[in-house]
Amino acid sequence: MDTAGLDALLLTTEPEFRYFSGFLTQFWLSPTRPWFLVLPRTGSPTAIVPEIGAPLLRRTWVPTILTWPSPRPRDEGVSLLVEALSGLVPPSGRVGLPMGPETTVRMPMADLLTVQTALAPRELVDATAVVKSLRMVKSEAEIAKIRYICRTASGVFDAVPELVVGGQSLEDIFRAFKVDLLRAGADDVPYLVGASAPDGYESVIAPPDQRPLTAGDVLMLDTGATFDGYYCDFDRNFSVGPASAAAGLAYDTLFRATEVALERTEVGTTCSELYRTMRQVITDDGFASGNMGRMGHGLGMQLTEWPSHTVDDDTELRPGMVLTLEPSVTYGDGAGMVHEENVVVREHGLELLTGRAPERLPELRS
């Protein structure tokens, strides 16, 4: 913050609030109430929260907690927030608020404009770089949580051939898979998508339907399960009965693209280099890249975080970064396939957090 010339950080979203305070609750799912955390450049943080949040917040390290009776649309903590910031930031000061890519402001726009006006001549400026630089590199405590949920989900994926057979609907498979994740030790399964279609699938973000698995289908399940507020994010593919030649080749290509990326995931490599590495294997095999726009991303308190493996993201890998490697291909008449693993960058090489997928497309009973 000193380097960026910031006198305070104003944080309004769940991941940032939790990262700096340790405040973990599902109550963020309610959009009624805003939550504010102010981190001055020197001194202790101040939380400005609805009264309902104070008892849980007192269990954290945040020493100053200001509350108001919410819902109160005429003043949802705005006056308290302005008062706190005015006391912590000099009139010539700068308040940092994440404003860049992959950030949001979780308060009504009208209230934000009111705060901006009331704080003048203090400036609200972009603090994305400060928060991004911290959150991209995980501590060992954070990595341990991600490792746990990755290994938990890997074990459940390993058991899919015993759980799933031809004729089951995707809806039934999703329910059973979620139950198994929870029984295995996941805290929650906020994200589970998948698809099943002959030779491959078109969408990687679809909800399940009642269509039964049929011989020749490729089934994909992709989960973002959580443990203590940290995500895994990876998928696995299965063939219902023997795989078609096209599906088998697509899977082989993705497996090898991931292998090459695993070898290149080291300190100093850029995300764009990882992207080109995976894309080269895909194009050499005669496939087109999938429609996902990137081939992996950061992972942690959110299902997807900075950085992105794209052609123009030149972020250099650093020890402690947790990443997904996620090549995808399209082929035939709209068919496609995606493969994903989770890793952490180490001083020398990487640590694979997920149990590596089988080298050949695994087969389910049809």
Explained architecture:
With 366 residues, this protein is an alpha+beta fold. It folds into 2 domains: 8-135, Creatine Amidinohydrolase, Chain A, domain 1, CATH 3.40.350.10; 140-364, Creatinase/methionine aminopeptidase superfamily (Creatine Amidinohydrolase), CATH 3.90.230.10. It contains 10 helices and 19 strands. The strands form 5 sheets. A 6-stranded mixed β-sheet has the order 4-3-2-1-5-6, with helices on both faces. Strand 3, helix 2 (54-57) and strand 4 (64-68) form a beta-alpha-beta unit. Helix 3 runs parallel beside helix 4 (109-119). The longest helix has 20 residues, at 245-264. The protein starts with 7 loop residues before the first strand and ends with a strand.
Topology:
Blueprint: E1 8-11, H1 14-21, E2 36-40, E3 46-50, H2 54-57, E4 64-68, H3 78-88, E5 94-97, H4 109-119, E6 123-126, H5 128-135, H6 140-158, H7 160-163, H8 170-184, E7 188-198, E8 217-227, E9 230-231, E10 234-240, H9 245-264, H10 271-284, E11 288-289, E12 297-298, E13 305-308, E14 322-325, E15 328-331, E16 335-338, E17 341-345, E18 350-352, E19 363-364
Parallel strand pairs: 1-5, 3-4, 5-6, 10-19
Antiparallel strand pairs: 1-2, 2-3, 7-8, 8-9, 8-10, 11-15, 12-13, 14-17, 15-16, 17-18
